[in-house]
Every structure is written in structure tokens, then in C-alpha cells.
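Lecture notes, part 5. Sequence design as translation. It can be helpful to think of inverse folding as translation between two languages: the language of shapes and the language of residues. The source text, in C-alpha cells, appears below.
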């Protein structure tokens, strides 16, 4: 949803913030683990009903998640395992925060707000949290699986930054209107799964085009081979080419071995 220009500016700002820390010798993987711990703290705060503080922590944790990548770029210490563990723990972090919200909903069976038009608000909230978790994981998995097949896949409405902002705004507004939290979950549940479907369709489209191009290439090679055979048959009938199949090739004269005793040749060499 955010344009590449906005993302680049945010990354540049984070890189400026992280430069002093990079000189202290802190590793990107350390920041990744700290980010996971921060998400656990955020989940505990939300589960206890402190939605305002929880919303602020969600924003801070979201920004902190970019610190490890920025640290790797600034300190030139990016590794393959670092990228892997960063993406993996990000999935844990998001799921843990939503679990904190789930615990909050389970402890409040009498949840009700005028902004939510349906009964059994607690049940709705639990279902929406589950759908949001599934959608979040599928968005990330679709991207990772596409990249594993060699395709870049960053399309879709709700990537991780957008999900963080929607959840944070819902928690912050939930201190005034409790219905804001559940409406934020509605957005997350629906549009995260829409994003996953968008990525599935995108990969289907580009793989279909690749398969069509491959089939066209194979078909073209087949036609070329048929042309070679036709040309060969025509040429042999008119004695313009040798009997072996090929272009601009002549039959090799017979080769006779010549004996020699000069090392490292033993037996014979061919002239």
C-alpha cells in the first residue's frame, strides 16, 4: 500500500537513527531477538487491557523490527541466516501480539460497543483474530514461496507495515471507542487474506506466462528440427550433402594410428 518512495524515506531515516548504535558493536541478530522480546512485552500489556500503551508499543515494535535490517546494511554485516531468522521471528512477533489481543478478548465475555452492530462481540473478535493470524502468515508464506521459485512477489494491499499501523491505530482508538479494536481486526482479517489471494493470483499469472514462453520455445525448437530433417532429406536426394545429418559438416577421412615411443604417448597418435 505504501509507495516505494515512502518506504525508502523511512528506511533512510531508520538508517540515520541506527548509525550510532552500529558503532557500539551490536549485531543485527541481537536486535532481532530484542524485537521478539519487545513483542512479548507488548502482548502482555494488551492482554491486561492497557490498550493505549499497547498501541504505542505496537508502533515502537514495528519500527524496531526495521532496526536489524538497517543495522545489517549500515554495518555491512548482512548474512543469509540473518535474513532468514529476521523473517521467521517477525512472524512470531506478529502472532504473539495478536495472541495478547486474543487473551484480552477471552477475559471479557461481556464485550459490547455501539459501533459494532452484531451480538456476541467476543466470539466475533476471537474469529477475526484467528483470520488475521492466518492471513498474516499466508501473506508472508506466499512471498517466501514465490521467492523460493525465483519470482519477486511484493504485490498486495496489506504488507507488514500496513498491518502494524492498522492494529496500532485500532488499539489507540480503542481507549475511547472499544469498537475501534474490532473494526481494526475486521480490516486485518479481510485484507490480509485478500493480499494473500492477490499474491497467489500474481504468481499464477507470471508462472503461466513463463510456462507459455517455455512451450513456445520448445515448439519453435521442434519446428526447427523438422526443417533440418527436411533439408537433409532433400539434400541427400540431390547429392548436395553427405549422408550424415548436420549442417556444413563433411565426413571425416579415416584416421590411422602412427606408432611412437616419445613419452607421454604410448601406442599411437592420430594424424
Amino acid at each position: 500500500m505504501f509507495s516505494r518512495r515512502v518506504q525508502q524515506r523511512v528506511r533512510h531515516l531508520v538508517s540515520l537513527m541506527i548509525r550510532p548504535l552500529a558503532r557500539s558493536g551490536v549485531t543485527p541478530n541481537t536486535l532481532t531477538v530484542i524485537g521478539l522480546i519487545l513483542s512479548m512485552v507488548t502482548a502482555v500489556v494488551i492482554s491486561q487491557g492497557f490498550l493505549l500503551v499497547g498501541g504505542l508499543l505496537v508502533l515502537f515494535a514495528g519500527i524496531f523490527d526495521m532496526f536489524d535490517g538497517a543495522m545489517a546494511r549500515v554495518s555491512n554485516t548482512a548474512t543469509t541466516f540473518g535474513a532468514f531468522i529476521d523473517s521467521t521471528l517477525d512472524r512470531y512477533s506478529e502472532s504473539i501480539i495478536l495472541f495478547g489481543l486474543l487473551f484480552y478478548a477471552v477475559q471479557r465475555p461481556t464485550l459490547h460497543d455501539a459501533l459494532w452492530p452484531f451480538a456476541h462481540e467476543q466470539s466475533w473478535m476471537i474469529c477475526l483474530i484467528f483470520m488475521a493470524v492466518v492471513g498474516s502468515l499466508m501473506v508472508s508464506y506466499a512471498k517466501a514461496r514465490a521467492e523460493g521459485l525465483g519470482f519477486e512477489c511484493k504485490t498486495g494491499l496489506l504488507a507488514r507495515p500496513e498491518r502494524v499501523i492498522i492494529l496500532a491505530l485500532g488499539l489507540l482508538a480503542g481507549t475511547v471507542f472499544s469498537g475501534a479494536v474490532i473494526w481494526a481486526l475486521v480490516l486485518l482479517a479481510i485484507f490480509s487474506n485478500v493480499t494473500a489471494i492477490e499474491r497467489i493470483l500474481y504468481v499464477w499469472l507470471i508462472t503461466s506466462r513463463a510456462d507459455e514462453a517455455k512451450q513456445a520455445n520448445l515448439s519453435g525448437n521442434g519446428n526447427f528440427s523438422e526443417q533440418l530433417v527436411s533439408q537433409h532429406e532433400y539434400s541427400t536426394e540431390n547429392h548436395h550433402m553427405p549422408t550424415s545429418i548436420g549442417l556444413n559438416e563433411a565426413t571425416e577421412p579415416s584416421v590411422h594410428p602412427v606408432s611412437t615411443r616419445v613419452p607421454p604417448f604410448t601406442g599411437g597418435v592420430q594424424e
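The translated text above is only one of many valid answers, since several sequences can fold into similar shapes. Confidence is low (pLDDT under 50) at residues 232-271.
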